[in-house]
Design a protein that fits this description.
Helices cover about 40% and strands about 25% of the residues. The protein has about 250 residues and is α/β, with parallel strands linked by helices. It binds adenosine-5'-diphosphate and magnesium ion (MG).
Length: about 250
C-alpha cells in the first residue's frame, strides 16, 4: 500500500470538518475522492500533506481558534502525520493544490524548473521535461511565455506538470476541473489519464463525478466530512441510493 489513511479527523475551532476518514491508494492506481463543494476534499489533501499541521501551528491563538487533527497517515509504510509539509514532499508525496497557481511572473519553463528543484540529476530533469512536453505540447509552445498570460486550462496543465517535475511517487491533484469549460476539462482529464498510463499513482480530488469516474480505478464519496460510499465506478453508479443521494446523477 502506497498511502493508507486511518480515521483522519480534523476540526477547525470545534467544527468537525473531517470525521474518521479512512482511505487507501495502491501503487499504480488512480483513486478519486469525489464530493460536493464544502464536503472537506481540500481539507483532506491539506491534512495528509502536512498543511493543516502548518495551519495548526501558525494560526495558533489567532481568531481561527483551535485546530485539531487525529488519526494516522502512512506513506510507503511509514507514518508521516506529524511531519511538516516540505518533509512530506521530499518523501515523494506531491500536491497540486486547488485553483492552479503557477508562479505567475515566471515563464512556463522557469515554473517547470522550479518544480524540479529537488532533482539534482540534470539528465533526469531533462528527461522529465521531455515527458512533460510530449504530454502537454502546448507548454512547449508557450515555454518562454509568462505564466500569468496562459489560459485557465493551460495554467492547470502547468500546475500539474510542475508537480510532476518533482517526481512524486503519489501525486494528489485538487479539483483540476474547477472553472474550466467542458471541452478543456475533457482534454485535461485525458492528459491525467496519460500520466496514470506512464505509471504515476494519482489521488484525484474532484466535484465532477462523471469525469473522475471515467478514469479512476476506485473511488471514495465524501459528504459532510464522512466517507459515505466507496468502490468501482460502475458499482457506485449502479447503486440507486448512492446515485440519487450523493452523485446527483
Ligand atoms: N481554515 C479553515 N477554518 C475554518 N473552516 C474551514 C477552514 N478550511 C476549511 N473550512 C471548512 O471546512 C469545510 C470543508 O472545506 P473544504 O475542505 O475546502 O471543502 P471542499 O474542498 O470539498 O470544497 C467547509 O465548511 C469550510 O468552510
Ligand atoms: Mg476544495
Amino acid at each position: 500500500m502506497l498511502l493508507a489513511v486511518e480515521k483522519l479527523t480534523v476540526s477547525y475551532d470545534k467544527a468537525l470538518i473531517l470525521n474518521e476518514i479512512s482511505l487507501k491508494v495502491e501503487e499504480g492506481e488512480l483513486v478519486s475522492l469525489v464530493g460536493p463543494n464544502g464536503a472537506g476534499k481540500t481539507t483532506f489533501l491539506r491534512a495528509i500533506t502536512g498543511l493543516v499541521k502548518w495551519d495548526q501551528e501558525v494560526l495558533k491563538g489567532t481568531r481561527y481558534g483551535d485546530i485539531l487533527i487525529s488519526g494516522a497517515v502512512y506513506f510507503k509504510g511509514e507514518r508521516i502525520d506529524g511531519l511538516n509539509a516540505p518533509h512530506i514532499v521530499k518523501k515523494g508525496l506531491g500536491h497540486c493544490p486547488e485553483r492552479r497557481r503557477p508562479f505567475s511572473e515566471m515563464t512556463v519553463l522557469e515554473n517547470l524548473k522550479a518544480g524540479a528543484h529537488l532533482q539534482r540529476d540534470r539528465e533526469k530533469m531533462k528527461k522529465n521535461l521531455e515527458t512533460v512536453y510530449s504530454l502537454f505540447p502546448i507548454l512547449k509552445e508557450r515555454e518562454k511565455q509568462v505564466s500569468a498570460t496562459l489560459s485557465g486550462g493551460e495554467q492547470q496543465m502547468l500546475a500539474i506538470a510542475r508537480a510532476f517535475m518533482s517526481e512524486p511517487q503519489l501525486l494528489c491533484i485538487d479539483e483540476p476541473s474547477i472553472g474550466l469549460a467542458p471541452r478543456v476539462k475533457q482534454d485535461l482529464f485525458g492528459r491525467i489519464k496519460e500520466l496514470k498510463e506512464l505509471g504515476l499513482t494519482i489521488l484525484l480530488v474532484e466535484q465532477d463525478v462523471n469525469l473522475s469516474f471515467s478514469l479512476s480505478d476506485r473511488n471514495y464519496i465524501l459528504s459532510h466530512g464522512r466517507i459515505v460510499a466507496e468502490g468501482y465506478s460502475q458499482e457506485l453508479i449502479n447503486d440507486d441510493t448512492v446515485r440519487k443521494s450523493y452523485l446527483g446523477l
